[in-house]
Amino acid sequence: MPTKSTRAIGLMSGTSLDGVDVAWLETDGESITHFGTTAMLQYEESLRADLRRLLDLAPSIAADDPFLLDVEQRLTQDHAIAVVLAGRNADVIGFHGQTILHAPDQHRTWQIGDAARLAHLCRMPVVHDFRSADVAAGGQGAPLAPLFHAAMARDLPKPLLIVNIGGVANITYLGANGEILACDTGPGNGPLDDLAQKHLGQPYDKDGALAASGTIDATRLATLLAHPYFARPAPKSLDRLTFSALIAQATAGLQPADAAATLAEFCTSAIARAPLPAAPLRVLVGGGGRKNPVLMAGLARAFTVPVQPVEAAGWDGDALEAQCFAYLAVRSLKGLPLSLPSTTGVAQPLTGGRLQSVIL
Ligand SMILES: Nc1ncnc2c1ncn2[C@@H]1O[C@H](COP(=O)(O)OP(=O)(O)O)[C@@H](O)[C@H]1O
Ligand SMILES: [Mg+2]
Known about the structure:
The chain is of the alpha/beta class and 360 residues long. It is 36% helix and 22% strand. Helix 1 (45-57) crosses helix 2.
């Protein structure tokens, strides 16, 4: 007998700080029975800039710092508006929050967002704090998309590689015998966005125009790829700023276009270096990076198998991460695992998330 389906709204604000993605779906925590509205609420420039500042401040800022609390309230308010954009009622909201620090090796991961306020504003219970339990248990706390990817790809031929290019890039490898492997591969759009902000005054390099006009500097690329992270076995995960100092050093003195070309190649070469047990049949790419033709061309060069946006499988590449946190909220309510030894390095499959009920 099928178990009861739960209607969930997922909210994801990724490390690109571009806005909050929202998605509605219905699931029993295993298979997804209905997909609903998806949307994105773009952050206004001032919130984006303040969030970017918080990433730099996070290692030393106090949890009750007035600037942090103010940004958290503005962020939470935008999430409430995003829930309204989803336009339908739900039984639960999955609220990822905004990661401002991710240091699993120090048993720390920090997502800001006021779950009690969101539950109150939306009059819906909220599952939040998805990563802490995993990190407390010695896991990486990331990526958390693999079990969702596995549910989405249930009927697709394996092995399959799913790549998400956000601020950081991550992969899920789904093997022919049900294996699920995952890790953050390296930088995604993050360093390219920083470069575009600095040299173009734009939040990102639209359609990869700047990167396409530059030349890859092979020596600098080799310096970047010599970072010890790439030799580490999976599972492993990254902070948005893990490579900042190295990138600043390796791109110093380069023309912006050449720096962009080199950073784009850094992203795709790092994805191609992810340790996989077998070659996939194809590569599906989600996240905003799939809209950057330079990144897609880099991946197509790096893999011998077809590289396609996730839309080729009928998925919505903009909404995937928000759908993931709707799905994980329901899994959390049911006590089902959110992470596995092969996805975060945690010792046992582990549930996570905390339930915040509505306070009126
Ligand atoms: N047309 C485009 N051309 C180039 N890059 C794009 C385009 N559209 C989106 N992006 C990139 O995608 C990013 C947003 O991707 P997203 O999946 O939301 O990442 P995150 O999950 O980190 O927020 C933007 O910051 C930008 O770098
Ligand atoms: Mg985003």
